[in-house]
Structure of UDP-N-acetylmuramoylalanine--D-glutamate ligase:
Amino acid sequence: MDCADLFKNKRITLLGLGLLGRGVGDAEFLAQCGAQVTVTDKKTEAELAASVEKLKQYSNVTFHLGGHDSRDFTDTDLVIKAAGVRLDSTEIAAARAAGVPVMMSTALFAKYAMEAGAKIVGITGTRGKTTVAHMIHDSLISAFAKASADRRAFLGGNVRGISTLAMLPDVKAGDVVVLELDSWQLQGFGDLKISPNVAVFTNLMPDHMNYYDTDMEKYFVDKANIFKYQKTGDMLVVGDRVADRVRAAHPPVAPAASQPIPEEWALEIPGEHNRENAALAAATLTALGLSQEDVREGLESFEGVDGRLQFVRELHGVKIYNDNNATTPEATIAALRALGKDITLIVGGSEKGLALEELISEIKKAVSHITLLVHQNYQGSERLKKDLDAEGISYTEARDLQGAVDDAVKSARSGTILFSPAFASFGMFKNEYERNDQFLEIVRKMGGVA
């Protein structure tokens, strides 16, 4: 696909640059396509220095940082907003009032890729979407290589450092693009009235309630865009825990429930929740035409994803797991159940407003020592602390991640150390990726042979 046909000489405003690489990739791609790009963000140039530096080479990229100029939204051909920008922002309202289309890059990619004949597989859900997306993608790559097929599998969406939009020139008819989609990215699909050819909905649990004003229905409405605009011939795969809610929404395609994978299938990654993830991936891969042999081979060889119950190393007989991306109590509960007992748990972070009762109950069953991350902005930790005190559960406080890991290693004489925060990262860290990288660096530098 020739991107110049789509974007050359278009005036495009990118609302939200960020530091994760996706915004930079989008801006680079559009600039290379010949668009006149304006990048605007409330953060200052100093705060975005790493991203800005990569774009300074392009004469057709203009920056408005540290705030927004209303003309960037009213005197332009297109606004592409970042996933984290609220739809009810004044900038979006100004663009729409001026008749300027507002889109999101992943949805825009999906629209053009489907028009080119590629198949889009979208995965959403509160938990499991990253693991399921990688399971599907990795299995497709193996199967296509084994068959010497003239088709490729791509991975995009909510993936660190990857501009999905920039994959457009490489995608052709017959290719399969696997997209991990969060609720905000699916707002963009709703705006364009499109849904993936194959939609996978893993589950639905309370999350991002601070954004959705504690309204689960608002959260579901955004998630439901993954199937709302499907057409005859498309497919919808749903997990057991969300199946009834999806059916009640009267999707245009009848949902297919996943079936448990055979007991003899031996996964590399632990936990019943990962067997549930594998069941969803298996149903999807079968729908995409893979044989049972290829499905099993792909899933049994899958080694997991960074930050999701990731085994890092063994130190003095204690296994250390990185579950950084567990940003809800439910995710941490799943990790505790997967690893069993005698767990030293590193937990804590910023507030999401989610219930903690079940987490406390699971801590009583599985955890031998708690290291609690505390910070002036970590109201989630403060609320957890009150609940632990009320139950008479002891814990040690740590004011940074190095201190938390040191305490956990000192306390754990056997069993497992599990870093599973149960809360968001903001306050002590710029984002969950920085938290993930810090944890891995600290653990890998510790004494002993990895």
User: Anything to note?
Assistant: The chain has 18 helices and 17 strands. Residues 140 and 209 are 34 Å apart (CA to CA). The mean pLDDT is 94.
